[in-house]
Amino acid sequence: MSVQHDPVQRADFDQVMVPNYAPAAFIPVRGAGSRVWDQSGRELIDFAGGIAVNVLGHAHPALVKALTEQANTLWHVSNVFTNEPALRLAKKLVDATFAERVFFCNSGAEANEAAFKLARRVAHDKFGPEKCEIIAAVNSFHGRTLFTVSVGGQPKYSDGFGPKIQGISHVPFNDLEALKAAISDKTCAVVLEPIQGEGGVLPIDLAYLQGARELCNQHDALLVLDEVQTGMGRSGSLFAYQHYGVTPDILTSAKSLGGGFPIGAMLTTSELAKHLVVGTHGTTYGGNPLACAVGEAVIDVINTPEVLAGVQAKHQRFKSKLEQIGQQYDLFGEVRGLGLLIGCVLADAWKGKAKMLLDAAAAEGLMVLQAGPDVVRFAPSLVVEDADIDEGLARFERAVIKLTQA
């Protein structure tokens, strides 16, 4: 028997919600695989993936089963106790990565907050309070807490909230000379995204990442990789650092880690983890059984040769069609990214019109994203079916045609 709910509509958002978002005019109510239906019953294809979160699409049977079984068993016990799903998921993350220790939380911002606090604590314990400086990249994005938004290299997100966290500097992404000039023995961490997500789906250069690793080694600084958007198979490797072959000291994960259920994780070594002794950091919900049970199901499905190889094949299918559309309508200057995180950089004539393309695509029954005003971003399910890719891109092309004829 289904529960009867009071009717709600999009206009209610403007009456009851804080106005920090401007959501679409329609409300999705149901999803299955890479398809979504709104209140009117209209079907859309989902290439947004909840902003690189719905890594296995909507209502994936393995995730539904894991969540339902756990919901009938144990929801929450707090960090006064440990729980079996958390231990199982932690073991699987350790087995699959460089890491030896895991800290669970609820979001990417919290995972980065933990990473930055750990980096400062390690430097404080080993070298003293002067070694606290963090270097991040211009146009980076690391979350919305005061600390993480200060580390993020986008003043539009961090300005206007009073004094910022001190000891943070920003250098141009992929510019090794700038990083060399900025790093010193006061640097405790260099923080980088393997692909700048919000900053325009811009992959890191291998030589730059290798150089950053070397500079960190020389200056006793930690290399922190923010894999909140790039992790959990998104790049075609389980984590993007594995694609590049450069190992960080600390890695953060969230978004796809729970496939849509809120969870974040900070991964690191035993040697570094020992600096977060009992009482130094915590979270009430972090590592709760519901989130970890779902996370375990996610990694079980994704971390297989078939799914990871499928990501590469699907990347090629997307890229070739998007490049064809880009050339045919003089729409894109470049199609870039790794795996199923793809950014289409708008050509000069279309600069600033990413939002217009999003809205036109939605009108044709397709959900896509933007990464700034000049880049259309695709972050679909890693198991999106080829038929859905083809149909979704046909809808995208129809949206482009309508805009060119307008």
Describe the fold and architecture.
With 406 residues, the protein is of the alpha/beta class. The protein folds into 2 domains: 10-60 and 305-405, Aspartate Aminotransferase, domain 1 (Alpha-Beta Complex); 74-302, 3-Layer(aba) Sandwich (Aspartate Aminotransferase, domain 2), CATH 3.40.640. The protein is built from 15 helices and 17 strands. It has a 7-stranded mixed beta sheet, sandwiched between helices. Helix 4 runs parallel beside helix 12, helix 13 packs parallel to helix 15 (386-405) and helix 14 (354-363) crosses helix 15. The longest helix has 24 residues, at 305-328. The termini are far apart. The mean pLDDT is 97.
Task: Give a concise summary.
This protein is 40% helix and 18% strand. The protein contains 15 helices and 17 strands. The strands form four sheets. It has a seven-stranded mixed β-sheet, with helices on both faces. It has a four-stranded mixed β-sheet with strand order 1-2-3-15. It has a four-stranded antiparallel β-sheet with strand order 13-14-17-16.
What is the number of independent domains?
2
Number of contiguous helices: 15
Number of strands: 17
> What is the averaged pLDDT score?
97
CATH superfamily of the largest domain: Type I PLP-dependent aspartate aminotransferase-like (Major domain)
Separation of the first and last Cα atoms: 48 Å
Task: Describe the main β-sheet briefly.
Answer: 7 strands, mixed
Coarse structural class: alpha/beta
Q: Shape from CA axes?
A: globular
According to CATH, what is the topology of the largest domain?
Aspartate Aminotransferase, domain 2
CATH domain class of the largest domain: Alpha Beta
Percent strand: 15-25%
**How much helicity do the residues have?**
25-40%
Query: Which residues sit in consecutive blocks of at least 5 with pLDDT less than 50?
Result: none
Assigned CATH architecture of the largest domain? 3-Layer(aba) Sandwich
